[in-house]
Design a protein that fits this description.
Length: 462
Amino acid sequence: MDEEYDVVVLGTGLTECILSGLLSVDGKKVLHMDRNDYYGGEIERCLIHPCLTRTDVLPQLYQKFRGTPPPEELQLGRDRDYAVDLIPKFILASGELTKILVHTEVTRYLDFKQIAGSYVYRDGKISKVPSNESEAIRSPLMGLFEKNRARKFFLYLQQWKEDDPATFQGFDANTQTMKELYTKFGLEPGTQDFIGHAMALWFDDDYIQRPAKETMERIILYSQSMARYGKSPYIYPLYGLGELPQAFARLSAIYGGTYMLDKKITSINVDESGKFTGVTSDGETVKAKKVIGDPSYFGAGEDPVEGGKVRVLETRKVVRAICILKHPIPGTDNADSAQIIIPQNQVGRKNDIYIASVSAAHSVAAKDVWLAIVSTIVETSVPERELLPGLQLLGTIVDKFVSITPLYEPTSDGLADNVFISKSFDPTSHFDSVVTDVNDLYQRVTGGPLELKKRDTELESS
């Protein structure tokens, strides 16, 4: 390993693979290494060799959580029909991840299918999320007078343009808060809940007291994504999220990136001033100017090689339940897939509860089997009980696997030592925070913002 690289990337999770692909496209000399012998990090499916075989996914899921094979009496179908995402997330059809997919042209390696419905929990039941003034009129979420107020609110957002004061209607989105905008249109707290959490996709209510512009843009993005395909604003890759890191790995390789799997990192090396100089693996040392990696390579979780670079967010642990169903989620019109958001205020919590459901339609489960994952931020000493509002919406659960995962973040921005570390994935069922981390890391590593080519963001979807 006598070569010197611009960047060494450690771990083949989605964040790391996106950055590897982007930097390779930019002409950077990239070496990508992983201690595992497969592509994918914490987000990707429970599969030892996702690039080679899918014959043992279901047994591995049971082995991981139970230490036993799948019970034959459950009749779950063929093992090879499964691809289980441990942390499922959906892609906004007009969102930043879609723009990255199109910009890098990794869409040539992927096929997508639309998520059938986007729902919100309100007053004990779920309803489809309205995304424009016409849907608001038909929505059961609001009474007659509130529907009219919501219609005016959505119409205002459709007409609003940041560079055209004539569309402001006396409201300054840069200085006035989202709470003031809700008040301007007289929207009720329940309506504010589904707009802020199921459309703007905030996971708490802190946004209400911040300038309205950011939330307005997020609602507009949701509406644009909804309009692209109709039934919901989300798409999802066939065969699961494990396809995404593999696609970006292929992109990096095409542009000269080098991949080394099954390479245990024995040390991350720094000079006298503490700046990164390279990594050592199997007795060989490779030199590089910068390193990007997931938290597990810097003291988090198992097999740490260096401490002090990451911290556990003590108040931010995620509890998730992977549930196997033999029916669609009740109230979703027999949908083959769905996202359901339970806003915090609806169940007396500080954080939202998320439900992501996929099925055989997405080539991730056997015929007539649905996978539903319920997740939220832990707030009490009995985490699994906190998922009950979501679990109770699923109907009969054939089997369930619960995990509690700490969230990690870097202790510094990496500019001083050239060590750049990604954040753990939060409980949300969409990629908003992941793309924010990608953009932030890219800017810190390169010194400039990620600029995506303006191309049509339409993806192949059925």
